[in-house]
Amino acid sequence: MFFINLQVLPKYFTTMYSSSFEANTLLVSLGLTAVLAGVLCLKATPAYVMALSSNIPKPDSEKCLRDIPTHVLKRLTPKSKACVERLRTCQLDRPDLSRQPTSKLAAVLVLLYEQAGELRVLLTTRSKSLRAHPGQTALPGGKADEGDESLVWTALREANEEVGLPLPPTSSNIHFITTLPPFLSASQLLVTPVVVLLSSPPPLVPLSSSSTTTWDSSSNASPNTPPNSSSHPILTSLTPSLTEVDRIFDHPLEAILDPRLLLNKGESLVDVGEDWPYGAGDVYVSYLFPYRRFRLRCRVLILSDIYLTNGAGSSNPSDVRLDAFDGLIYRMHRFRTCASPIKGLTADILISVAELAYGRKPVYGRYPPDSSSGSSSEDADLEGETYRALVRRRMEENERAFAVAVEKDEQMRLTEKADGANGSAFLAST
Predict the structure, then answer these.
(1) Which of 204, 319, 344, 380 is the least crowded, having the fewest Cβ atoms under 10 Å away?
(2) Core vs surface per residue 19-33: b (16+ CB within 10 A) or e
(3) Which of 384, 267, 387, 406 is nearest to 327 (CA)?
């Protein structure tokens, strides 16, 4: 980059040229050349934004969230504490995302907190006015911005925009636990789950077993908290974004692994209707429980009221081949809640978090069989290896496209720099 003091140019050029017309013409030409050089520099910037931003020292989001203090862990029940420790110490293959275009990255916040002795997760129902996934359950989150220092910050920023969750260091009650490897969305985004713990003071009033909390943006009144819900000041102050979120609610994390716990603990669930448009007759007993069918029938019938992998009108329509996933067979899980059903990518993320936290598999079949290898349903697609291979393939495609874009912009920058130098030499020779 170079700078020209335009104030001294007139005097200098008028001494060199007897004609004021020539001096003014040259001054204008050099001025246009300087402006053009600045524009070209700015034009060459976007391709390098991702690479450069990773080299700029910025505050660490994880440090802003602080380590979980000892007194916070002591306040948890032994079961919840063990879950947090498993998540903190889990060994995961987290890929390097530094060479991925920002436009392909997203993050969601998995906000866990303990209530009535169990871990619960914060969820939202997307506004029905949105073009993408209206009225569906989602974790707070969204696409990465160029100015985000990390994907951890992306998740926190989006949660602040969607539900008003305070950003660090404003709140010292939000503690970083871990990040999971990215998931692939149907829109080809690499979505990184960011797991955090919301610490809270001891409850001032006894909590009953039915402790579901909901906030509704359709009401003009401030969000209210049912008497039996958490009294944490952050949760009671959350406000749904009028343009993005219809409802804020929570769900027991362990019930993602075994939905029958919802019935055992008396959780409030929506009636069959708009929020649970699946009939109780959609039973997957013949697919997921191929043996001892008669003895398990009663239990599975009860489970089908709150969890589904099958839908009406087909033997197993929830196992579908998706073009967006290169023809991969994808299993759609649906969980009944106090609000909108948990399904799709949100369900996939929560199943992974719950498996890591509780150290066990769900009571249902998580993955479909791998038809390409001729495996049976019990093989369960080698625990989703086909899906993980798809994610790796998308990352490699993104990296190649990113490298081509960088090389193309570099060549364009060098060409334009050479053209600018030739133009300056021509002006200097006139």
Answers:
(1) 204
(2) eeeebeebbeebeeb
(3) 387
